[in-house]
Amino acid sequence: MLDPNDFINPATQRVLAFAAHPDDLDFGAAGTVAAMTAAGIEVQYCIMTDGDAGGFDDRDPAETVRLRHEEQRVAAARVGVSTVHFLGERDGFLEPSHHVMRQVVRLIRQFKPQIVMAMHPERNWDRIQRSHPDHLACGEAVTRAIYPAVENPFSYPELIAEEGLQAYKVPWLWFYGAPRERENAFMDISNFFESKMDALRAHFTQHPDVGAMEKFVLEQCQANAERGKKPVGSLAEAFHLVAVNADDTIAGF
Fold first, then answer.
1. If both were cysteines, with which of 40, 145, 165, 225 could 236 make a disulfide (CB 3.0 to 4.6 Å apart)?
2. Which residues share a beta bridge with 15?
3. Confidence (pLDDT) at 55
């Protein structure tokens, strides 16, 4: 089992985290992000859809988009993230298309992160609500972008010709929201759990029962810590860590 804490070191300077909707990252990884930013790592977010189909109030979708963008910026700031990119795709209609993949490749080549985070591309049959089609599309788009497109100069060559964005090899891909059989790393967020909850509370349009949300998240983090064999009383986030370009990686294998 891998230890995410091992990555919080001077070799990790930049992390780019992708999500399908505003609030996805806060449910899945905000505690880990808070630990990273506290250690001086720069983390940026990319939210693929506008979240225009989310919420429980009867309001104009354009107003929902405005509110959800603002909620995500506030939530990000609460865990030390100051840059949030929005791709502007329609909520419920996200696809791992070349239109989306090109934008992912562009951001990765611009920022050159040592770690890319994304939602898991495999369906979770234990709790299907974790596998919203947009979540799966987010994971698939990022996976396809990272290999081979980001590191292949012949993929989207206009990014080199027009913007000078050279091919870049991503070292690590971290999936959150993974099926349990894929989990191989658990991050102890006990010291950052309140920051995670503060981030989640920023998404006021999404939580008609804040108490129920908080109870759910606490229980999930307790269960993660138990599966990860953390000390009794710990709270954790779960990941599927994938080495993309490790020391033993050779071209095409």
1. 225
2. 43, 115
3. 58
Within-domain flag for 84: yes
Q: Tell me if 174 sits within 8 A of 115, measured CB to CB.
A: yes
Residue 252 lies in a domain: no
Number of structural domains the chain divides into = 1
CB 249 within 8 A of CB 233: no
- b vs e for 197-223, b when ≥16 Cβ sit within 10 Å of the residue's Cβ? bbbbbbbebbbeeeeebeeebeebbee
Give the CATH number for residue 140: 3.40.50.10320
91-120 residue pLDDT tens:
999 999 999 999 999 999 999 999 999 999
Task: Please answer whether residues 246 and 63 qualify as being in contact, where contact means their C-beta atoms are separated by less than 8 angstroms.
Answer: no
* Token pair in block for residue 37: 């930013």
* 124, two tokens: 């979770």
